[in-house]
Protein 1
Amino acid sequence: MLTTKPMDFFRTLPPKQCSDCGDPIEEQAESYLMECDRCLSKKED
């Protein structure tokens, strides 16, 4: 069974992408948003 360090797992994950436009999302701790700030601001209008 292959085991890895938890931090190695998280470092190898691809960047999160916006579900609307596909641009990479700048992630912050404890953020569960699936849209980027630009797409979110369009929805608020």
Protein 2
Amino acid sequence: MKNSEIIELSTEELVAKLGEEKAQLTKLKFAHAVSAIENPTRITKVRKDIARLNTELTKRKAEAASN
């Protein structure tokens, strides 16, 4: 997910997407622990997407607090 796509989402959509990504990360970790997954770099991509979503949420909370 690109930053431009994340910025276009509403705050509610960000929270929902963050929950989905965390669930996906958990599934990937379990699948990788049981047997090696086909593309282990997906774990890294999902982690980075979660970080991007958290960054945007934090930025919006800071803007709301300053107003």
